[in-house]
Amino acid sequence: MKYHFPDFVAKFPPVSMPVTLGEDTHHTFSTENEPLPVDMVEQFILPTNDPGTPDDEFTEYVPCFSIDDTESFVALVWWRAGLLNYEYVLATFSAKGELIGRRIVAFTRVNGEKVSRAVATIDEDWVVFIAEGESSGSDDFFDPTSSKTYDVEIMGDGEIV
After folding, report:
1. Contact 105/128 with Cβ under 8 angstroms?
2. Helix (H) / strand (E) containing 78
3. What per-residue confidence (pLDDT) applies to 27?
4. How do strand 74-82 and strand 60-67 relate by DSSP bridges?
5. I want to staple 75 with a disulfide (CB 3.0 to 4.6 A). Which of 34, 67, 128, 153 is the partner?
6. Of 31 and 138, which is predicted with more confidence?
7. Could you tell me the residue range of the domain that residue 75 belongs to?
8. Quick one: which H or E segment has residue 132?
9. Does the global pTM surpass 0.85?
10. φ, ψ for residue 130 (rounded to 5)?
């Protein structure tokens, strides 16, 4: 089935900032929003994916929200659930549906005994504050030597820097 970009955007309820995306936030989005149909994912999301993050038959995409009050672009956040790899993706599009920018802003990734996590907060000025680190699989304590914080920003034209 062929979808129009407004059909895709309509799956993402508009939300005012600030919003925090963490390890358990997807429970809220999963209960309020249905996973995206496969045809919609193939049309609008897969062309934006990084080549290093392949999907399998169990990968699903759940729309989280659109950032309210953007004028010259559309900003969407979705949750990508794969095998031992969960990501929140922030993507910006033109009104016609052309990709402007895309970035993984929060995640949980399991690799053997290591668990890597990142949490993100998007504020009212569209600054995304990200904190990430690692822990061993046997505890939830971050290794302070692996922890870091940084931020990215959504510019007025939708570019993510």
Report:
1. yes
2. strand 74-82
3. 64
4. antiparallel
5. 67
6. 31
7. 5-153
8. strand 127-136
9. yes
10. -125, 135
Report whether 88 contacts 79 (CB < 8 A).
yes
Length of the chain: 161
Structure-model confidence comparison of residues 55 and 77, the more confident one: 77
Domain contains 107: yes
pLDDT tens for residues 81-101? 988 889 999 999 999 999 999
Q: How far is the C-alpha of 45 from the C-alpha of 89, rounded, in Å?
A: 10
Alpha helices in 49-89, H assignment, sequence order: none
- Assigned domain for 160 exists: no
CA dihedral 97, 151, 161, 61 (to 10 degrees): -20
* Residue carrying structure tokens 């802003």: 105
* Cα dihedral sign, 115-23-151-46: positive
Contacts of 153 (CB under 8 A, 6+ apart): 125, 126, 127, 128, 160, 161
161 located within any domain: no
Cβ atoms < 10 Å from Cβ of 77: 23
Q: Is the dihedral of CA 152, 10, 64, 103 positive or negative?
A: negative
Quick check: is 31 in a domain? yes
